[in-house]
Design goal:
This protein is mainly alpha-helical. The protein is built from twelve helices and three strands; from the N terminus they run αααααααβββααααα.
């Protein structure tokens, strides 16, 4: 069986045995046909390829400046092919096991500056019923770092006005208590007093934030709302609700908050997830240093 036939059989098995999607199969095909061409140029093939052949393949990708994520995907595709061959006793090993994988840098989340957040929070018209609701939602999101799914799922009994806390049901139906802050609390109270009854009309729903039709707010609705206010605020960065969550965490750490406390407020089960924001804070410090230090290009 030649190399072309082996690859065809592999892809057929991936479809039949594992039910992979057409897009995934096409990605495998693209990755493995490129490797097959490389092996052919080196005078070898799927059965006889060794570590050096695969190392040269990775070196070519490095010279071509392929992204680490793309290199990792191609290496994974190759590994699956070689393991398939070994399972059918067509070869003894997977040569990718002996390779040092490409380093994949962890992508830092984008955050808004504090000035941009202030501009965003000031964008809604608080003399308008919808604007008052939108202001309350934006204030709450930035004050608590909620996921947008958590925000739109809030009910009226989630708010403890006396103590200034929200009860939030997060991932895995885990409940946590999050402080809301005076400004966000006042914004919610104004919305509940003036705007929510008008939006509801004669309807009665448990949702804290409702649409102009008197129904519970959805993620999609809020997505459009926040993008519209980003335009009004003159924010150039493409804005999503999650960006305010990132900004909440980063700004807290910038001002000296405890990492463990931020973890609890965000609802992260593993503190390593929260630690990414310490990297954001460090990058911000480096940026400020480079911009303003007289020996680093600053004025």
């Amino acid at each position: 069986m030649n190399d072309v036939e082996l690859l065809r059989r592999f892809l057929d098995d991936m479809l039949v045995e594992h039910g992979l999607s057409a897009n995934t199969l096409e990605a495998y095909r693209h990755d493995l046909e490129g490797l097959a061409d490389h092996l052919q140029r080196r005078g070898t093939g799927w059965i006889a390829a060794g570590r050096d052949d695969l190392a040269q393949w990775l070196e070519v990708m490095v010279r071509e400046r392929l992204a680490p994520a793309s290199m990792a995907r191609k290496r994974s595709s190759a590994g699956r092919m070689f393991r398939w061959l070994a399972a059918r006793e067509l070869r003894l090993d997977d040569p990718t096991d002996l390779l040092e994988g490409p380093k994949r840098g962890r992508r830092l989340p984008k955050v808004l500056s504090e000035a941009d957040v202030e501009a965003l929070l000031a964008a809604p018209d608080r003399n308008d019923d919808l604007g008052l609701r939108d202001a309350a939602m934006l204030e709450t999101l930035y004050a608590t770092g909620l996921r947008v799914s958590e925000l739109v799922s809030l009910t009226t009994d989630a708010l403890d006005e006396g103590f200034g806390f929200l009860r939030v049901v997060g991932k895995g139906d885990k409940e946590r208590v999050v402080p809301i802050g005076e400004m966000a609390l006042a914004s919610i109270q104004r919305y509940q007093r003036r705007s929510r009854p008008v939006l509801l009309g004669k309807r009665a729903v448990p949702d804290l934030f409702v649409t102009h039709r008197g129904k519970g707010m959805t993620r999609q609705n809020f997505w459009y709302i926040i993008r519209r206010y980003a335009l009004l605020a003159g924010i150039q960065m493409e804005l999503s609700p999650h960006l305010l969550r990132h900004s909440f965490a980063s700004h807290l750490l910038n001002h000296g908050a405890d990492l463990r406390g931020v973890q609890m407020m965000l609802g992260h089960s593993d503190i390593s997830t929260t630690e990414i924001y310490t990297h954001v804070a460090r990058e911000r410090i480096k940026e400020v240093h480079q911009r303003f230090h007289p020996r680093c290009g600053g004025g």
